[in-house]
Amino acid sequence: MDFQWIKVAYALLTLFIVLNYGLLMTAVIQKMGARAGRRYGIRVYQNYIDLLKNYVLRSKITHGYMYYLGPVFRLTGGIGLLLFVPTIYGSEMWANFSFSGDLILALYFVFFGTLGMALGAGESGHPLSALGVSRGLSQVTSAELPFAIAVFAVALQYQTLSVTEIVAAQQGGVMSWTLFTNPFAVAAAMLGFLGSMMRAPFDVVLAPQEIPIGPPTEFHSAYLALLQTNRNIFPVAKIVIYMNLFFGGAASWPVFGIKVFLLYLVSAFVGVAFPRFRVEQSVRFFLIWGVPLAIVGLYWV
What we know:
Elements: H1 2-36, H2 46-56, H3 65-83, H4 103-121, H5 129-158, H6 163-168, H7 178-181, H8 183-197, H9 215-218, H10 221-246, H11 253-273, H12 279-300
């Protein structure tokens, strides 16, 4: 019983570290994007101010129950994904609850939050909510397809669905990483990663230059704060699963910080360099480039 409480305590500490790292890293990435556009950008601590401000606000607007469960489901997906994969390889303290779930469970958490937000949008009462749902599910499904095939290839390659065992198989040095042992599967998964991060050119759901609505304007007070919290946890959690599957995991917190930042920087660089796709362009991109690469990676095994 004492051991279980210790695991819970370290899992909560992991969540606290990742949340703060996500808040700071997101601010740094936003500032870098602003500087690329010759703007000053936000202050590094601005995300903390916005988060605390929204948590103390209260709302008097009433919608259906599912509308308010959407942000809860979204946050559950991010926290669940983070807590059921090992954060630091080889550490009993930072393994979280990875012993209780496998790669299939992690993939469910990746998609869980998106489905919750789609159900929540259905009760928003906004006439364009169906447009956002169709855009989001279309892109997420097309982006998840090459990633799912790449994950299947990795599971076949290492003959296990345990994330910890997959990381262990990559500990023979840099050349033992999946990046070098199956580059086609990693390339396909990274294309899916760009879509799952929903930064430009794949920000077809929010479409900030086109539709001034969506979760940032429709949700408010503490519900918006839940989405902001998830916006800092979920990307890091997704990067952790990519890091473990394809880039050898992390054996310490400094290595964790460097790898997560570099992978996050990939999506930020693409977002700054390329304009936004239309919905059909985004879906076509993943089907034409991501899926064939993933299939080649599967045959590579």
